[in-house]
Inverse folding.
């Protein structure tokens, strides 16, 4: 990891699952961090954004509308946060000279591939959430061609919010068996592992060592939701046979989900930044931090 102590960082969406880990990881590295929650900074307010960005070297936008199903009926509201918000941040960074790291999603892809999506693979979102996030990507790349970074991630879980792994462990305490879909494949990613990668990318960007553009920030290896649930049971001492496979047809939801969310990681070498560990290694580490947080009601 590069020395980032002279660098001034702004983290938006700092009360969220990723935002909290980002603030902690950056502070742990000795960075000067301003962490603003949604209540403290509305990323769609251009004036407030410009004032907040001023004086910072790196901005990491973790603020987002994350209700994928809700976006289907409130697409304009979701796109305002996920599309217009990044545009306001990019415009402010263009004025101030700051680097912007925009956190995006695998949902910009159609999810029907058979090989990992590259950073330059054609995009074609299958739901409203993906369309809004793609609008945000395009705004950052348009306004910050030399200092804008889009980091797509997927299947996030962590200690500080609602997520699949926490839900599975909660269900384990209340049900003898759980049915989990086995026909969607992706890369389960711990928010702290992503936070560390964003830290290193921001440091490389400030040094001028990381080419601007799109990166894919997910764990190595692949799994289905069924695989992930079984691993979570196994690693916490529960019987993985209590997890039973099923299909997506059993869990119909308002927003269509991609069946294949595997992303390629070829660009990290260009930036001199390490890729993320295998998803099972991440999960093993994460569960040690999630148990105390869950017992404390985080």
């Amino acid at each position: 990891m590069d020395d980032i102590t002279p660098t001034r960082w702004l983290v938006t969406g700092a009360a969220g699952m990723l935002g909290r880990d980002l603030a902690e990881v950056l502070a742990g590295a000795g960075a000067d961090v301003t962490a603003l929650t949604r209540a403290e900074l509305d990323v769609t307010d251009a004036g407030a954004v410009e004032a907040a960005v001023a004086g910072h070297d790196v901005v990491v936008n973790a603020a987002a509308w994350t209700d994928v199903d809700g976006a289907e009926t409130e697409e304009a509201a979701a796109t305002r946060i996920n599309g217009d918000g990044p545009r306001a941040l990019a415009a402010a960074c263009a004025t101030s000279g700051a680097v912007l790291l925009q956190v995006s999603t695998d949902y910009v892809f159609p999810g029907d591939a058979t090989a990992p999506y590259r950073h330059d693979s054609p995009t074609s979102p299958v739901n409203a959430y993906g369309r809004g996030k793609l609008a945000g990507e395009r705004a950052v790349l348009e306004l910050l061609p030399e200092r804008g970074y889009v980091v797509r991630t997927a299947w996030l879980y962590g200690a500080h919010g609602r997520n699949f792994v926490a839900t599975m462990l909660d269900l384990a305490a209340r049900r003898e068996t759980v049915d989990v879909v086995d026909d969607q494949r992706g890369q389960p990613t711990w928010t702290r592992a992503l936070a560390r990668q964003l830290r290193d990318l921001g440091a490389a960007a400030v040094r001028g060592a990381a080419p601007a553009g799109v990166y894919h920030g997910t764990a190595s290896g692949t799994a289905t939701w069924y695989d992930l649930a079984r691993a979570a049971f196994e690693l916490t001492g529960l019987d993985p046979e209590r997890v039973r496979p099923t299909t997506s047809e059993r869990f119909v939801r308002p927003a269509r989900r991609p069946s294949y969310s595997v992303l390629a990681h070829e660009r990290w070498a260009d930036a001199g930044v390490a890729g993320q560990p295998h998803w099972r290694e991440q999960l093993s580490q994460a569960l040690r931090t999630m148990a105390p947080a869950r017992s404390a009601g985080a």
